C-alpha cells in the first residue's frame, strides 16, 4: 500500500508563503518524497497555483484543494469547480472535512455528491470521516463511520479505487492537541477497512489515513499501526521543519 503524508493548511498562508513553505520542505527532503510515500498539500484556493508551481521541485509531491462545489459551473457565488482546481495545477481535493461538516453545515448527501462529481471530473479525493466527542461517549463510533462512509460511497464504482483515500479524523482530536490513542485508531481503521472491502467487494486498496493532532512526537507510533497508511496533518504541517519530521517518521 502506498503511504500518503498529507498537509491540510486550512485558512493559512498566502500564495507567497505557501510557495516558500513547499520550497523549504523540498530542500529539507532533498527534492523527493521518501520512497513509497506521496506528499499531499491541501492549500487554500488562492495559493493553489503558486503551490503547484513550487511543488515541481518536490518529486512525489501533489497539491490539493480543501473544498469544491459539485457542478460544472454556474451561479454559485463563492464556490470553485473541479475544472478550476485542476486548471490551477491541483490534482486532489478534500471532501467531508469535519470543519466543513460541523462549522459549515455540510451533510452526508452533499458530501457524497461532491465526492462523485470530483471523481467524475478527474480529481483524486480524500474523504474525511470521524465521530464527535458526544457520539463517542454515546458509543456510536461504528454507526457514525458506517453512515458517513456508506452515504459518501453510494454509487461510487470500483474504478474509483485508484483515485480515493479515506482519512479517519475523530472530531475531538482535530486541533485540540489530543490525538486518539493507538487502540482507538486501530479499532476505527479496522472498521473502515472492513467497510471499504465490503463496499468494493475486494481486498482494500484505498489508503486509510489518520488525522487529529499528529505531531513529530507521535507520528511514528501512529504510522506503525495496522491499517494506517498515512496521516493528515493540520497544525504541525504549517512549518516545513515539523512536517518533514512527520514525513520521515
Ligand atoms: C486536520 O485539519 O485535518 C487536522 C487533523 O488538524 P490537526 O492536525 O491540527 O489536529
User: How many alpha or pi helices?
Assistant: 10
Mean pLDDT: 96
How many β-strand stretches?
Answer: 8
Bound molecules: phosphoenolpyruvate
Strand percentage lies at: 15-25%
Protein architecture, described:
This protein is an alpha/beta fold and 249 residues long. The protein has helices spanning 15-28, 48-55, 82-87, 98-102, 108-120, 133-137, 141-153, 182-200, 219-223, 240-247, and strands at 3-8, 37-43, 61-65, 92-95, 124-129, 164-168, 208-211, 230-233. It is globular and about 45 Å long. The mean pLDDT is 96. Phosphoenolpyruvate binds next to β8.
Short description:
The protein is an alpha/beta fold.
Keywords:
single chain; alpha/beta; 10 helices; 16% strand
Topology:
Layout: E1 3-8, H1 15-28, E2 37-43, H2 48-55, E3 61-65, H3 82-87, E4 92-95, H4 98-102, H5 108-120, E5 124-129, H6 133-137, H7 141-153, E6 164-168, H8 182-200, E7 208-211, H9 219-223, E8 230-233, H10 240-247
Parallel strand pairs: 1-2, 1-8, 2-3, 3-4, 4-5, 5-6, 6-7, 7-8
Helix pairs in contact: 1-2, 1-10, 5-7, 7-8
The structure holds phosphoenolpyruvate (PEP).
Phosphoenolpyruvate binds next to strand 8.
Amino acid at each position: 500500500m502506498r503511504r500518503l503524508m498529507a498537509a491540510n493548511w486550512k485558512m493559512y498562508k498566502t500564495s507567497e508563503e505557501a510557495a516558500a513553505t513547499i520550497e523549504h520542505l523540498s530542500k529539507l527532503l532533498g527534492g523527493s518524497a521518501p520512497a513509497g510515500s506521496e506528499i499531499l498539500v491541501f492549500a487554500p484556493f488562492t495559493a493553489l497555483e503558486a503551490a503547484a508551481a513550487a511543488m515541481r521541485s518536490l518529486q512525489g509531491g501533489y497539491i490539493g484543494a480543501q473544498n469544491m462545489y459539485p457542478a460544472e459551473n454556474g451561479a454559485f457565488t463563492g464556490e470553485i469547480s473541479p475544472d478550476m482546481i485542476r486548471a490551477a495545477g491541483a490534482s486532489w481535493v478534500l471532501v467531508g472535512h469535519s470543519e466543513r461538516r460541523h462549522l459549515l453545515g455540510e451533510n452526508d448527501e452533499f458530501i457524497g455528491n461532491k465526492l462523485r462529481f470530483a471523481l467524475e471530473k478527474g480529481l483524486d479525493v480524500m474523504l474525511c470521516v470521524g465521530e464527535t466527542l458526544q457520539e463517542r461517549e454515546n458509543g456510536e463510533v461504528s454507526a457514525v463511520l458506517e453512515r458517513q462512509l456508506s452515504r459518501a460511497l453510494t454509487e461510487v464504482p470500483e474504478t474509483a479505487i485508484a483515485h480515493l483515500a479515506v482519512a479517519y479524523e475523530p472530531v475531538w482530536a482535530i486541533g485540540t492537541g489530543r490525538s486518539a490513542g493507538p487502540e482507538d485508531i486501530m479499532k476505527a481503521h479496522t472498521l473502515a477497512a472492513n467497510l471499504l472491502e465490503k463496499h468494493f467487494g475486494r481486498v482494500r486498496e484505498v489508503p486509510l489515513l489518520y488525522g487529529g493532532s499528529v505531531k513529530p512526537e507521535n507520528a511514528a507510533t501512529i504510522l506503525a499501526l495496522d491499517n494506517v497508511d498515512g496521516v493528515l496533518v493540520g497544525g504541525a504541517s504549517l512549518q516545513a521543519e515539523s512536517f518533514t519530521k512527520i514525513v520521515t517518521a
